[in-house]
Structures are given as structure tokens and as C-alpha cells.
Amino acid sequence: xxxxxxxxxxxxxxxxxxxxxxxxxxxxxxxxxxxxxxxxxxxxxxxxxxxxxxxxxxxxxxxxxxxxxxxxxxxxxxxxxxxxxxxxxxxxxxxxxxxxxxxxxxxxxxxxxxxxxxxxxxxxxxxxxxx
Length: 131
What we know:
Shape: elongated
Oligomer: single chain
Strand content: under 5%
Helix content: over 70%
């Protein structure tokens, strides 16, 4: 009879430990959810009345035209090789392919191809000068 008593006592203890672990886990989840709720409440959500006033189309078009005029570089004359040398020199000045394409009125893949060729050119010149 004593063994049954100890077995029941052990089972009750195990159930109590399991319940304690579950409640501890539940407490952690509740705290995490409360933190997320506080974060969401702190996040500013714009109301439709607080959104920026729309800019008229003509004003934004004028601004875009001015910006385009500032960044355009006119390439006049010269051969295709000169054009690619000019692309390489712009890249040496720190411009990326998209900026060069806009400035030179070329497509981005064409500019990337010109830059790839420009990177190969010094290697080819070194091989020719060694021969």
C-alpha cells in the first residue's frame, strides 16, 4: 500500500512540475505579445488627413525636366570607340551604370557592356606590350 502512495505522490509531483513549466511558458508568450502590442502602439500610423498634399502634375513634370537637363551630357560626334572611352572615364569618376546610361542616353545593358570591355582593355594592352 505504501508503494501506491509514493507512486501517486510522484505522479502528482510530475503533473505539478509540468503545469509549472506550462505556466512559465505561457507567461513568456504573454509578455512577448504585450511587448509587440506596445511596439505597434508606438508605431506612428498616418491617417489619410495627415498624408502629404498631392503635387500637381505640371509642377512635378517641371521638376523632372529640370533635373534631367542638369544631368544630361551631350555626346557630340566621335566614333563608337570614343563613346565607350567616355563611358569608362565617367565610371572612373565614380558614376554607376544607371547614372552613366541616363547621362549618355544609352541603355543600362549597353553601358554595362562598355564597362566590361573597358575592364578587359588594360589586360589586353599588357599582353600586347609584352609580346
